[in-house]
Amino acid sequence: MKKILSVALAVLMLAFALVACDKPTDAGLNYGKECLSVATQLDALNGLVKGDADIAVIDSVMAGYYMKSVDTFKDYQVLENVVLAEEKYGIAAKKGNDALMGKVNEALIALVNTDYKTVADTYGLTTELLVKADTVNPYASATDGSWDKVAADKKVIIGYTLFAPIAYNDGDGADAPLKGFDIDLAKAVFAYLNGKYSTEVSVEFIIIDWNQKESMLENGSIDLVWNGMTITPEREAEMCVSVPYLANKQVAVIKKADAEKYAAADAAAFATKAKDAVIIVEQGSAGEELVKPVQ
Asked: How confident is the model at residue 64 (pLDDT cuts 50, 70, 90)?
């Protein structure tokens, strides 16, 4: 019977474009009794609203924006006092493309008192800024050909997913402009580099499957992942990662009506309160890594 129910559940999740994580009885989850993985963090929030899950684990940067700005989520909230992880965002290039990343770092540091702060203020993220005027650029002396190639091609391709206020469409329809903290910051960085080095690099943004970001960098489909990517030792080993540029946390989003049910003083207490909950996350995200055990 258990096997039949598991198959039925898998079919049901497939209908909603969900991918079931391992059950706690099989491998052990850090939080909840079941984990559902979806394509984006916005899908995780929408899955919570649809009733697919009890709790969404997503970035605090995104959660704060949607809870305050989008009517769809007016009955939902970030669970108070519970920080599942503190993180830093970084930009990624293909491993070995140090010169390209060196130029990105250089621009971020040069813009620290101008566009970097201005863009952050536009999206309410000034308290999350991490780059300082004295931040050290570890790739300042890199001489590989990655920057020269971008300059010669006159184009840099940046992979992103939709999650406000990092990257989102401002309105409906195919013509809705793309905006967000990372979008505007990337444009400012390459405008600075074009001015300093007399280049004509245009910025092209393409939506990616977040779970495929490493392979897309490796095969050259994109030049950079610039989309609120959490810096981890594993990612630093697989990719060339920028200096940390934005602070973030992993938080739990719940129905306001469930606030008392899941109220906890810290992450450890939350794990106990949420032991029977279905948790929804973005596939390949830091949130999934927190909830789902390391395989």
From this structure: confident
